[in-house]
Amino acid sequence: MRRALIVLLISLLAISAQPASALHTLEKYAQADQLRKPGLLILNPDGTVLVENEPDSPRAPASVLKLLSMTVVLSNLDPNSRYVTKVWGTGKKREFVLRGSLDPFLSVNRSVSDKYGHGYLMGLLSRAGVLDFKKVVINYTGLYPGDIKGLKVAFKQRGIRATLKKVNGIKATDLGVEELATMTSKPLSKMVSHVILWSDNAVADRLAKAVTRQLGNPASAKGLTKTFKEELARLSISTSGLVIKDGSGLSRGNRVSARTVVELLRAIRNDPRFAGIYDGLPISGKTGTLVKRFEKAPAAIDHVHAKTGWINRSVTMAGYAESGNQEYAFAILADGITPNLRSRNAARRTMDKLLEVVVKGSHQTP
Predict the structure, then answer these.
(1) Spans of all domains in the chain
(2) Lowest CB count within 10 Å: 81, 144, 354, 361, which one?
(3) What is the pLDDT of residues 68-121, one digit of tens each?
(4) Top-level class of domain 22-78+190-360
(5) Who's near 18: CB < 8 A, 6+ residues apart?
(6) Nearest to 303 by CA among 290, 284, 316
(7) pLDDT tens digits for 1-16?
(8) Rounded CA separation 156/145 (Å)
(9) Would 22-78+190-360 and 84-186 be classified into the same CATH topology?
């Protein structure tokens, strides 16, 4: 009897020791020197805390901010909406009208267009016959300044003397007499997925500012912060300490807490309006910005869907980790990293190892 009792006690200790050890491992990685006391939060599938470290402390999120930006975008714009750009003739041999609709997904670079699916502006102009001349006048409206800057460079490279004149919509309508070529963008949902997968700063910033203006706020830091706070509040997401300087995450002045990010991840996960965000999330060791990650944490490969980011002292990642049929939402915002490649890579490896522990599932209570 005594021997049976001893065996039973040993068995119970063996069962309870594994979760305690795993939790200790999670805490070890969360508090590792390589992460420099990050803002960190990982929630169990039922919403309880698995591990945390200063989750309410506002941090510089780098490109993890794009999760917030694209949520605000899809909260207000139809994911099936598209943008149209047209070239019109004016009746004058070398004068044209380039009329856009502020398509955020345009490019003058053929390789960028071929790789990512951006609308190719020079291709549109070629179909309209604009590139057949050595000297042209283009009246334009509804294009971003960056697109016009790119066009000037592209024309110069082709030896074409192009005079580009900005006009308003009424003037563009008066000048255009014959539609020569048209181009329709990919749907907005595909743009959002692209932003998340490849961390496209320009498109993210354009979309965030477009929504901010649409909602009646200026496309300034004050206007962006107001827009983000109001739209996230509609989803019952905490916005304490939130400061938005841009839509991309490039600004060091952006501030977001790990709790805000994780609450957002849980809020949008099964909402079809935000499917484009999840569809675009890089997969550990497989796609996008995670394709070369998790080499030192192989058990997590193919089981983490997350947005990464880094600027100066910030190395960040947020998304979902799969363990069996369970899914954990997480955010790791390490914004005290020494600004060099060695320190950033050390932080990344530590994040990968932490998430590998979650994926292995040994932290769960048997």
Answers:
(1) 22-78+190-360, 84-186
(2) 81
(3) 999 999 999 999 999 999 999 999 999 999 999 999 999 999 999 999 999 999
(4) alpha beta
(5) 362, 366
(6) 284
(7) 455 544 444 444 443 4
(8) 17
(9) no
DSSP string, 54-120: STTS-B--GGGHHHHHHHHHHHHS-TT---EEEEEE-SSTTEEEEE----TTEES-HHHHHHH--EE
With a CB cutoff of 8 Å and minimum separation 6, the contacts of 157 are none
Tell me the whole-structure pTM to 2 decimals.
0.90
Residue 241, amino acid: G
Domain 84-186, classified CATH 3.40.50, yes or no: no
361 band by pLDDT with thresholds 50, 70 and 90:
confident
Q: Which two tokens stand for residue 178?
A: 């014959």
Maximum Cα–Cα distance across the chain? 105
Taking residues 32-50, what's their average pLDDT? 96
